[in-house]
Write a structure and sequence with these properties.
By secondary structure, this protein is mainly alpha-helical. The chain is 53% helix and 4% strand.
């Protein structure tokens, strides 16, 4: 396993949202592994933060999800999502966004 190091020889952890993104799409670890050309165990190591991916693998994974790198990987922990982050005042996110656009036009 490759452990990333910086100049002071301390491990650098790369955080990711792989498990959440897979769950949203109904993909297994094996599905993502086959789509990106790695062993399914590698996906598990990545999700648990036990392995830092190569830059090439990062791009393959992000391409598979159709998302930019910063939406999937980060050098800092991602903030936790809460119900309020997902829904504003009981309004579904899409309705909330379209409502904002109408207000901005006025």
């Amino acid at each position: 396993m490759r452990k990333a190091r910086h100049h002071e020889d301390q491990p650098i952890r790369i955080y990711n949202r792989l498990a959440m993104l897979r769950a949203e799409r109904g993909w297994s670890r094996r599905d993502l592994a086959e789509a990106t050309g790695v062993n399914y165990q590698t996906i598990g190591y990545l999700e648990r933060g036990e392995y830092n991916p190569s830059l090439e693998l990062v791009f393959r994974i992000c391409d598979r999800f159709g998302l930019p790198v910063e939406a999937v990987f980060s050098p800092r922990p991602f903030p936790q999502l809460t119900g309020e982050d997902l829904v504003t005042r009981g309004t579904p996110p899409q309705a909330s966004l379209s409502h904002q656009s109408e207000e901005e036009e006025l």
